[in-house]
Amino acid sequence: FALMLGLATGHYCLDLRKPRDRAVLHKLAxxxxxxxxxxxxxxxxxxxxxxxAWNFRNERWNRAPVCLTASSCAQLVDGVLEFDYVSTQRPxxxxxxxxxxxxxxxxxxxxxxxxxxxxxxxxxxxxxxxAGSRGExxxxxxxxxxATEKEADEVAKRWRDWLASSHERISPSLYSEAxxxxxxxLVPAMARSADAEPSAAATGQQQPTKKRPTSSKKKTTKxxxxxxxxxxxxxxxxxxxxxxxxxxxxxxxxxxxxxxxHVAAAPVPPTNPTPQYREFAHRLxxxxxxxxxxxxxxxxxxxxxCAFPRDSYLRVEVLLAVFSRIVDLRHxxxxxxxxxxxxxxxxxxxxxxxxxxxxPLTVDRHYKMNLKVPDEREMAAVLVKLAMVEPGENWIxxxxxxxxxxxxxxxxxxxxxxxxxLAHYGILELRYESSAKGCKPDVAARRSLLPxxxxxxAAAS
Length: 461
Description:
Blueprint: E1 10-15, H1 19-41, E2 56-61, E3 64-65, H2 70-75, E4 80-85, H3 100-109, H4 121-135, H5 149-164, H6 177-183, H7 222-229, H8 275-289, H9 298-306, H10 314-322, H11 333-338, H12 342-352, H13 354-357, E5 366-370, H14 374-389, E6 395-401, E7 427-432, H15 443-448
Helix pairs in contact: 8-10, 9-10, 10-12
């Protein structure tokens, strides 16, 4: 029902043999077509993952990576299709966040006592009735947790679908080394449930432009350029401890056994969600059902997020549920950096993308970008531009590896050539810092980058 309310942002796992799931896909394809057309008519920057203006992300059909468009959605008639969708429709210019009174009513409906500023007599009454219904099912309460086994199984299925496609477990992705090996025929392709091969439209993903490695001549780095200008000042770029680049395989991707050399072993995840997850998944369903035409400020979303536990990315699910209704998206960094831990922040970026969540006015944080992925490469280009125009050593602990399965290049620093021609390959990891000694943010340069991000789009009239 979320699509009927205009809430398209979220994770989808559709069994295309079912008429209802096919109807969801066709409805979503229509929304994607309308949003793509609106962005093109408004001359908006492309913030999509594949640089094709379609807002589908992390797509997999029968566990094999694909690139979805409206036409390919119409051609898929069977199999299991998994993807994330990010709606780029912004609230109307006249829209404002919901009033404090209505927001408190929503919190009471969800049974979130801890999110209320003060406890009134009315709040206590509602909370007591909600707390009393947790131990035994109240069949007269429309907001009671799922009572039937079928409803409980649906919660478990959504939980498994989410974890199997999380940033830690999705394998292979369209731009991963594992998929590149599969395309070259070095490892067997993943088994498909359907006998037929996917349609040309479904598999017509854009292949990133491959560039040959640059020559062995010594590159000019930003640090070296600044040192020359300041009379031999040494760069401050340091190398932090490397992380394992490969991702653990999803439990459903057993067909990728030949890639074990490239994938690190991971502990077997639990097969069912915790009782706490089931309880708060129900409260999340109440939130979706009561959104209506309401909008939120980032401050209100922070209160919602903080009321949910750190259990299987529940906080990220809350953010996705209300993402399209946030009126002050430029301040979303306060939530990402203040309320989400490193793992949750990486998951939010995985689902939504850097260009849809961040604001160039506040870029001081840690980044890990695959330069094969178009939107992540665009984010890297923004950081390169800022590094060139802002004074000081603002790239801290930068690391670069040519592939996921190889170690980082020792002593690597930002090449000056990247200002004009950014590499189309490799994993770039760094922390951007503009508040350290000798660093100063260039506000004018950052404002000029706003149109590249979703938060810089003009509100709908």
